[in-house]
Design a protein that fits this description.
The structure holds three protein chains of three kinds.
Chain A: E1 12-21, E2 29-39, E3 44-48, H1 55-63, E4 70-75, E5 78-79, E6 87-90, H2 102-112, H3 117-130, H4 146-159, E7 164-168, H5 176-192, E8 196-201, H6 204-210, E9 213-217, E10 224-229, H7 243-264
Parallel strand pairs in A: 3-8, 3-9, 6-7, 7-8
Antiparallel strand pairs in A: 1-2, 1-4, 4-5, 9-10
Chain B: H1 3-32, H2 44-57, H3 59-91, H4 93-106, H5 115-122, H6 126-150, H7 154-162, H8 167-205, H9 210-219, H10 223-251
Helix pairs in contact in B: 2-10, 3-4, 3-6, 3-8, 5-6, 6-8, 7-8, 8-9, 8-10, 9-10
Chain C: H1 2-23, H2 35-47, H3 49-82, H4 84-97, H5 105-113, H6 117-141, H7 145-153, H8 158-195, H9 201-210, H10 214-242
The chains are: A alpha/beta, B mainly alpha, C mainly alpha.
């Protein structure tokens, strides 16, 4: 069958965004403080920072799940107001529908887009194959390993053909070995279908390996501390042994380190 | 409690009583309107004044006290014996083998069907009601206790052994406290059951007690009396539930569910 | 098979004790007929068509009352969790009525609906409604946010999310609440048949007791207990299949 349409990536513009987290009980907390950031077309941008720095919050604001109270977020020139399949999200804990099989999970977004049945089926099977899960279409999530569940989540999101991919520590819930394999797989998948990606992680090495640019965020309230270009390193599995790669990781870790310590103190 | 914590708690109390007030207002409004007759739904104010009358004349405290005494006695019996059997089942294979079919059949069966048996054996007075209540209430206690005791994390038991604790120590100092949350949950399920069964027993056997007086009111078409009874039982039920929740919070101060988990 | 027999073998011991105690005079046989006599009475009952008339009456009320409670309760509970106006309206009612012992409704039902079928069905409906509403409400509220976000991400409408995501995701907890309602429905059924019926299994037990026919009374009590137990088991088997995806 023909290669699924290559969706053009979409530029993301974030300007002066602040966000306050208001829990039902307890004090309001400033999660993000006037964050401005841009991601170009088909660029892979990593958001790197310690726990609680607001990087996931930033992602969900772009996704349209949280209200944007101050500042502006635009994707491909359009302001973000609500969730939608143009910005596909991959969640850390997979968020698969447990009562649906693998195939049904992947089909869900396609059903919402009201594609004709034959085309839906074809697309779903194609993406299941893309993530190497052929043969597991009729399994339930409860029967799959963590790595397999995440692959279903990725297939499901990619099948929606979003112009932007938002990934919230997608490999954070996996063991170290599976994580490395998934990182390689992701690079492979994106090599064939480039998209704009915003990738949240606290793992420095992962960020340098996968991304074109890495935005370092400070401890809460989150601000952009600095942005480092890493397009010339990483990108393949053996790149991690490259000297320049190691230097970049080192540099970024030192940048993050102070923030991580501050976050540990429970700022 | 911090200032904001106090404000939050007061707000919640206000919201909770607000719902009661809303219900009462709705009741009164519906009763006063011509939609339903006074017989079907007497006005709350009329019912309330009946309750006040009964309280002042002393009948309500007597009836309520009688019902509560029976229900709580049955509950206590079920609690003590139930926990005992539950612990035994969790720790002793023979006990588990013996009680398991009884409990697994008894638990979903409607124990109230045995009421005529208890009447036959123990007559029409307090004893039969208390025993019937205990019989009905014991099953959730046994099930919860057995599950809680069995489910104690073996690592903390090993930890205690490591420190040199004896078998007896371990049971009373480690296992029972660890199983306490689930045991109390079982007791929390058993308490309303105790009240329900006591009331039904009183209704069937007649005589004194809230159940008995309500049936008399129904037979004499004393609508106000019946609704007064409902309100009284509702209050009794509410008080008992809140009381045991309080006990739970006190006993389980250490438990994760009681702690305000740091939110970040 | 042997595992099954072993598990239930203590019951044989109890049956044996039940036989020996009254026959040997340890217990008064007038108050506790020997097990064999109870079994004989049960055999007589089973071939008597009268039993099935009573049983049908009971089961019909049971199914009607419970069925209605489940349909209304699940719908109401989920809608409450999802739409604030409904919640604000219904929540106070639920919170007030929930702690009340449902058997207190029996006298009201007698007054409102007399002694017919409707009174029992109404009682079971009202008694079982609340546990179902509460568990459906909690289940719907407890649906993981990421599942809803996932559906929103895919472009689902509000109504689609309710029927395609919230409802299936809530099923485990809802089914658990219905199991409680099932047990409660039997209690209410038997209680109401003791007090306000002219046919039905509860009525039978009371009638036989008052008439001194104790062997048949015990037989019927066992029968009713067995039905309650069997219903629960059947329900569990059903939920296991419905929730097969849980693995």
């Amino acid at each position: 069958m023909a290669e699924p349409q290559r969706a053009a990536g979409g530029g993301i513009r974030i300007a002066g965004v602040s966000h306050t987290y208001r829990p039902p009980r307890g004090r309001a907390v400033l999660a993000l403080d006037h964050v401005s950031l841009e991601a170009g077309d088909n660029e892979f941008l990593a958001l790197l920072g310690p726990s609680g720095c607001g990087k996931s919050t930033m992602l969900y604001l772009i996704g349209g799940f949280l209200p944007i109270e101050s500042g502006v977020i635009e994707v491909r020139g359009k302001r973000v107001t609500a969730p939608g399949p143009d910005r596909g999200v991959v969640f850390q804990h997979f968020a698969l529908f447990p009562w649906k099989t693998v195939r049904e999970n992947v089909l869900y977004g396609l059903e919402k887009q009201r594609l004709p049945k034959a085309e839906r089926m074809e697309r779903a099977m194609a993406f299941i194959e893309k993530v190497n899960l052929t043969g597991f279409e009729d399994a339930y999530p409860a029967q799959l390993s963590g790595g397999m569940k995440q692959r279903v989540a990725i297939a499901r999101t990619l099948a929606m053909d979003p112009s932007v991919l938002l990934m919230d520590e997608p490999f954070g819930a996996l063991d170290a070995q599976t994580r490395r394999l998934m990182q390689e797989e992701l690079l492979g998948i994106l090599a064939r279908n480039t998209k704009t990606v915003v990738f949240v992680t606290h793992d420095v090495q992962e960020a340098v390996l996968l991304a074109d640019r890495v935005a370092v965020m400070s401890a809460r309230p989150g601000r952009i501390k600095e942005i480092v270009d890493v397009a010339d390193v990483g990108g393949t599995a053996d790149a991690i042994r490259d000297r320049r790669f190691v230097e970049k990781v080192d540099y970024l870790w030192n940048s993050v380190r102070g923030e991580a310590l501050a976050a540990q103190k429970g700022v | 409690m911090s200032a904001s914590g106090l404000a939050g708690a007061s707000l919640r109390l206000l919201a909770a009583s607000g719902s009661v007030i809303a219900l009462l207002v709705g009741w009164e409004a519906l009763a006063r309107s011509d939609v339903v007759s006074d017989f079907l739904l007497p006005q709350f104010t009329v019912v309330a004044s009946r309750i006040a009358e009964d309280t002042l004349s002393g009948t309500l405290p007597v009836q309520l006290g009688l019902t509560l005494w029976r229900a709580l006695a049955g509950f206590a019996l079920a609690g003590v014996i139930g926990v005992g059997i539950g612990v035994m089942m969790a720790r002793n294979k023979a006990a588990a083998w013996f009680f398991d079919p009884i409990v697994s059949i008894g638990f979903p069966a409607p124990k109230i069907a045995f009421l005529p048996v208890f009447i036959l054996w123990f007559g029409l007075f307090d004893l039969s009601k208390i025993l019937m209540t205990a019989f009905a209430a014991i099953f959730p206690v046994i099930v919860a206790t057995a599950a809680g005791t069995e489910g104690v994390d073996k690592y903390i038991v090993w930890s205690a052994r490591n420190a040199g604790a004896s078998g007896r120590n371990i049971l009373y100092e480690i296992i029972l406290p660890a199983a306490l949350p689930q045991i109390i949950t079982g007791l929390q399920v058993a308490l309303p059951i105790s009240l329900i069964v006591t009331i039904v027993s009183e209704m069937v056997m007649g005589g004194e007690g809230l159940g008995g007086t309500m049936m008399v009111a129904a037979r004499f078409a004393d609508s106000v009396g019946v609704f007064a009874g409902i309100v009284q039982i509702a209050i009794a039920g509410y008080v008992l539930i809140k009381a045991i929740e309080l006990v739970r919070r006190r006993l389980l101060v250490w438990h994760q569910e009681t702690q305000q988990i740091a939110t970040f | 098979m042997t595992a099954f027999l072993w598990r239930y073998s203590p019951l044989f011991l109890i049956a044996a004790a039940w036989e020996i105690a009254p026959r040997s005079g340890m217990l008064d046989a007038a108050l506790l007929p020997p097990f064999s006599e109870v079994m004989a009475a049960m055999a007589r009952l089973i071939i008597d068509p009268g039993l099935y008339v009573h049983a049908a009456a009971s089961l019909m009320r049971e199914i009607a009352g419970l069925g209605l409670a489940v349909v209304v309760g699940v719908g109401l509970g989920i809608v409450m969790a999802w739409y604030a106006p409904v919640r604000i309206l219904v929540n106070p009612l639920v919170r007030c009525i929930y702690p009340m012992p449902k058997s207190a409704l029996i006298p009201v039902m007698i007054m409102w609906l007399g002694l017919g079928h409707l009174a029992k069905i109404g009682l079971i409906f009202m008694g079982c409604l609340l546990p179902v509403i509460v568990s459906s409400y909690n289940a719907a509220r407890g649906v993981e946010t990421v599942l809803i976000w996932s559906a929103q991400n895919a472009g689902a409408s509000r109504r689609e999310i309710l029927t395609e995501i919230v409802l299936p995701a809530s099923m485990p907890e809802i089914l658990s609440g219905v199991r409680t309602a099932l047990a409660l429905s039997f209690v209410l059924l038997v209680s109401s048949e003791f007090l306000m019926a002219r046919e039905g299994l509860g009525y039978m037990i009371a009638f036989l007791g008052e008439g001194g026919i104790y062997d048949a009374m015990f037989a019927t009590v066992l029968l009713v207990s067995g039905i309650g137990f069997a219903a629960d088991r059947a329900y569990l088997a059903f939920t296991r299949r419905a929730l097969a995806w849980r693995a």
